[in-house]
Design goal:
By secondary structure, the chain is an alpha/beta fold. The protein contains eleven helices and twelve strands. It folds into two domains: 111 residues, Rossmann fold; 180 residues, Rossmann fold (3-Layer(aba) Sandwich). The two termini are 17 Å apart.
Length: 322
């Protein structure tokens, strides 16, 4: 019998030794997409993806014996889950592997903006120590931090921000007001949160129905002194509307670890904007997080091929082919 194949669609690491070893333990072989031949399509039982290119209906139907798609990400919006459900294909993700890293990065981005570190660093380099222009800086304990999406990461951010003295309000359509209050935050509608908060950070899971959640109308609800932090998905924000708000000083600043298109076109107005801080979708990263991501990502494929229910099966799916 021919060896089952697992295809690495877009994994960026040159050395896939750990994945190869894990799959060899269940009699499967790893192959990169560029090396896959048409004659091998029927042997493909699994896909590994970082979610860069997307796995759509045609991709899923290309492999008649496909059992599992493992997205190495906290989300799974890159996979057509409905088509996978119809075809009996398991879809998994790696929930919670980088909760601490993203929460830490969120605080770092926000504090960088709030404390005007770019400006102060330039002044220090220019020898400006006696007549420092610190601008307007609000005390943390006099400020409100609004968390949009109160899951693992949102709650981790809230704990950190609370330790700095921020009052916390939160919006999450999947939680009741009572649940949010029990978790230590003031519940609010999205519009209320935007109007109240001095810092707003986005941690929602993308469904596709909430693209441009922060459109021009909602961005206008933010205080002109507020800061917006996005470490979730670039599609949540109307980037042209955000750039306009920053240009006209209707918003103090924004820090973005994610953009709608990645890598962005150099003409993107938010790149290099004097009131933005952009990092290259790196909030998730630490040495430990990377190791966990890879181990759990391939581990889900091993589970399915071994006849076990994977721990990180997406909620919309009931199971996989046997």
């Amino acid at each position: 019998m021919d060896t089952p194949l697992v295809v690495a669609l877009d994994l960026e690491w040159e050395d896939l030794g750990p994945e190869e070893a894990a799959l060899a333990g269940v009699g499967a072989q790893l192959v990169r997409l560029a090396d896959l031949e048409d004659s091998q399509l029927e042997r493909v039982v699994g896909l590994l993806t970082e979610g860069i290119a997307g796995v759509r209906a045609d991709d899923l139907r290309r492999y008649p014996n496909l059992k599992v798609v493992s997205e190495l990400s906290t989300g799974y919006d890159a996979v057509d889950v409905e088509t996978a459900r119809q075809l009996g294909i398991a879809v998994t993700h790696v929930a919670g592997y980088c909760t601490d890293e993203v929460a830490d990065h969120t605080l770092a981005l926000a504090l960088h903006l709030i404390r005007h570190l770019d400006s102060l660093s330039r002044q220090a380099l220019q020898g400006q120590w006696l007549n420092v222009d610190a601008g307007s800086i609000r005390r943390s304990r006099d400020s409100i931090w609004g968390v949009v999406g109160f899951g693992r990461i949102g709650r981790a951010v809230a704990r950190r921000a609370s330790a700095f003295g921020f009052a916390i309000c939160a919006h999450d359509p999947d939680l009741t007001d009572e649940q949010i209050a029990e978790l230590g935050a003031r519940p609010a509608t999205l519009d209320e949160l935007l109007e109240l908060s001095d810092v707003v950070s986005l941690h929602a899971a993308r469904t596709g129905r909430d693209d441009h959640m922060l459109d021009r109308r909602r961005l206008a609800r933010l205080k002109p002194t507020a800061y917006l932090i996005n470490v979730a998905r670039g599609a949540f924000i109307d980037e042209d509307a955000l750039a306009d708000a920053l240009d006209t000083r209707r918003l103090a600043g924004a820090a973005l670890d994610v953009l709608t298109d990645e890598p962005p076109d150099p003409s993107n107005r938010l790149l290099g904007h004097p009131r933005t801080l952009v990092t290259p979708h790196s909030a998730w990263y630490s040495d430990s997080a990377l190791t966990e991501l890879r181990a759990r990502g391939v581990g889900a494929v091993v589970d399915v091929l071994s006849g076990r229910r994977p721990a990180d099966l997406v909620p919309e799916l009931a199971g996989a082919r046997s």
